[in-house]
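Why does residue order matter? Because the sequence determines the fold. Keep that principle in mind as you read this record.
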Amino acid sequence: MNYVSTRGGIEPMSFKDTVMSGLAADGGLLLPDEIPDVSDRLADWQKLTYRELATEIIALYSSISSKDAAALVHRSYSAFSEPEVVRMVAVGDLQILELFHGPTLSFKDIALQFLGNLFEALVEERGGELNIVVATSGDTGSAAIHGVRGRENMRIFVLHPHGRVSPSQRRQMTTVSNENVFNVAIDGTFDDCQGIVKSIFTDLPFKTRYSLGAVNSINWARILAQIVYYFFAAFRTMESTGLEGARFVVPTGNFGDIFAGYLARKMGLPVTRLVLATNENDILSRFFESGTYALGEVHTTISPSMDIQVASNFERYLYYRLNGDPAAVGRAMAQFRDSGSMTVERQAGEPVDEWISSGSADTQQTLEVIRSTYKDHGYLLDPHSAVGVHVALSLEGAGEPTICLATAHPAKFSESIGRAVGSKVARHEMLDRLTDMPEQFTVLPSSLVAVRGWIEESLSAG
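Structure:
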């Protein structure tokens, strides 16, 4: 299987080159040149453990042998506290898919532990070194750091928006003292951080000179690892209900998590609907309601990982929405870049997408669903997962199996949980240990020149 750019300006690439490149040289995102139909394998796959299922799916999309894929999967998930990597919990009529049992208590660990091990194997195979540059709205940074820290011939540079991540999220990044970890706080929003990183990766001489790699969800391997839990959760739900299929509600900022579900459905998994859930930063929700993707003001909320206006994986979805026409994708993205808005064509009365719907929750609604879920069921939701549950509770079709993705442990957002339930019940010993540890990070303006200079200076010093 080869990989192509959403903008069509490169020759097809191998899986390994795709992982190492992150972003295509023409500025597009990389996608497989075909999506395999696995409908005839579903009955057999339903019997597999999570790790076995991950091995099958990773081997399907890569040039990695099943034996090597199994070894990668084993190493990647050996530090997870849950034997099956993820856990499903019934809360009222909903199924909560807990994705936060990895080393940093975030769903990002599932992809980034895998990507860290994959990078290490590829660097060892090819020689040289790899310098990772990543923007984070909160959880990606710490998960990426813990996937890379201490590895030979690899360094990681993490940009987070200054004062716009939770204290626990910040400390999970800035208390890591390994010499190959560099943290910077940008005076700006996450979109500013992400824009700087994308600009760095489109500067091909700079990218090549410093052997840069990407771990943001623009990296295809991130999406690949996330496809697995859609299959696993659907299989477990189908077993428990006796019904064929389920709908998923996905808290969404960068569109990577829900895009993995979109691909799972294209592969043949019986997903009846994907429901996108956003906070006040609702560019994606507005798109699926109106067909217009238009910038708005970035609002600071209690679900900071979704405080995003420019969703980095949206272009991958757009490629399929525009029937795999890279020229049309290029025109649409150029229009968005120049005007801050673009619109997809559709027939009057037709939905933007037959299989994706959307909803949103503001801060008060998010706090209320945290409060009511704890009061009625004794279950704590983090603010991002609560956005999804709020949207799920408003859906029509009572009795249809509904799986809500829980993306972070509530202890990562203890202040917001305290606001909702009136007591400090969201605790985790891993986070408690970080409170008094020294932090190391640099503060920089929202400037491409400043960040490039910081990377060059850090590499020359090391």
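The domain at 87-104+221-427 is CATH 3.40.50.1100 (Rossmann fold).
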